[in-house]
Amino acid sequence: MTRTSARSGSPFETSIGFSRAVRVGSTIAVSGTAPVWPDGSVDPDPAVQAHRCWEIMLTALEELGGTVDDVIRTRQYVVDAADGDAVGAVHGEVFGDVRPASTMVVVKELLDPRWKVEMELDAVVD
């Protein structure tokens, strides 16, 4: 099977040695994605952060031939349970009737203290 990858320009891709997304056959896995803008800034609003994460991930997914309709699983990590409703609402906006299997987990902290959310997804394309 052919293995292809997508990169988002994150400085961590080179230093840690990972790809934003990898496609093997019909399966695409998108790495944990943080809500960072190209200039390195992070909006403090959890809903804006969620939108930014999905924007980055769906761009990588599309680069590898997938669409939002191909997503079968999502994972959302939040550092404050109080942000769950806002982050979940954005998930609903993005996925509508796609309704992938999904998990939201409250974690103690993420790599950068500005991040309130980090996400990942898996997709299967035809």
From TrEMBL:
<protein>
    <submittedName>
        <fullName>RidA family protein</fullName>
    </submittedName>
</protein>
<dbReference type="InterPro" id="IPR006175">
    <property type="entry name" value="YjgF/YER057c/UK114"/>
</dbReference>
<dbReference type="InterPro" id="IPR035959">
    <property type="entry name" value="RutC-like_sf"/>
</dbReference>
<dbReference type="Pfam" id="PF01042">
    <property type="entry name" value="Ribonuc_L-PSP"/>
</dbReference>
